[in-house]
Structure formats: C-alpha cells, structure tokens
Design goal:
mainly alpha
C-alpha cells in the first residue's frame, strides 16, 4: 500500500508542476537558474514582477496541497497517530519526493523535453548536471528531517 501512496504523492507533485506551466515553460521561469531568468527577462518574454507573482501563486498552494495530502495520507489513510510513526512515514514520503524531483522531474522531464526550452534561449544551460542535483538533494534531505518532524507533529495533534 505504501508504494501506491508514494506513487500517488509523486503524481500529485507532477500534476502541480504541470498546472504551473500551463501556457508554456516561461510561466515556470522561477524554476530556472538565475542566469536563465535574467536572460528571459532581457528578451522581454516576461518581467521580473510577473515571474515573482507567478512564483508566489504557485508556491503557496503547492506547499499547502502537498502538506495537506501528506497529513491526510499518514493520519487518515494510514491511521498513524503517534509522533514517531507519523515522523518516519513523513520522512519516507519527503525523501522519496526529493529524489523523484531531482531524478524524474529535473533530469528526465526537464532534461529530455523540448517543452522546457525557452524561445531565444536554446543555448542556455538550464538542466542541472548530476553534481548539482546531488548537492541540492543532499541539502534538501537534511531539511526534510526537520520537515518530517513538523508533519509528524501536525499528524499527532490532529489524529
């Protein structure tokens, strides 16, 4: 059952990203490295205020939906009520999501899809190399240790 839940959680993650870029990759410019963002703005494809507004309009609902889904999966679907049980499940989900984001989203989808190539920036390097992916994912793995504690606490309080 946990594998099905992890798959659901990762698909929800993918759906949220896909919704963010409806209308073109430029709508998700905040996902790109700063150099690519700056060049895209210079080309007039978007302005910085619009990009920042789109980032907020995505990130706030994204974190709320992903947190709510995680709390409901762990507390309601799995019936976890103790902090420890909820913590370990949350850590598993967050770490799997972290790896999924780095490998499936960043390296496979973004790295092998023409969708993410911005017009006029075909030469711009925007796909992270493996070293960058591993560094970012390692840092996030540590952050998710604390994030899992927050989720575990929420599940313990609610359920």
């Amino acid at each position: 059952m946990i594998v099905l839940q992890l798959l659901f959680y990762c698909l929800l993650f993918t759906a949220m990203v896909k919704i963010a870029v409806i209308g073109g990759a430029v709508n998700g410019l905040y996902f790109y490295p700063k150099e690519v963002q700056d060049r895209t703005i210079e080309l007039g494809l978007i302005d910085r205020n619009t990009m920042n507004r789109k980032r907020k309009c995505f990130m706030i609902p994204f974190f709320i939906v992903m947190l709510a889904a995680l709390v409901l999966i762990i507390g309601l679907w799995n019936g976890a009520s103790s902090f420890g049980e909820a913590y370990w499940q949350a850590l598993l989900f967050l770490e799997v999501m972290n790896i999924y984001d780095g490998v499936v989203i960043d390296k496979l989808w973004v790295g092998h899809s023409q969708f993410w190539v911005l017009p006029g920036l075909e030469d711009a390097p925007f796909v992270q190399i493996w070293r960058q992916v591993l560094k970012k994912r390692s840092i996030l793995a540590l952050i998710w240790v604390a994030g899992a504690a927050i989720v575990g606490g929420i599940v313990h309080l609610i359920f």
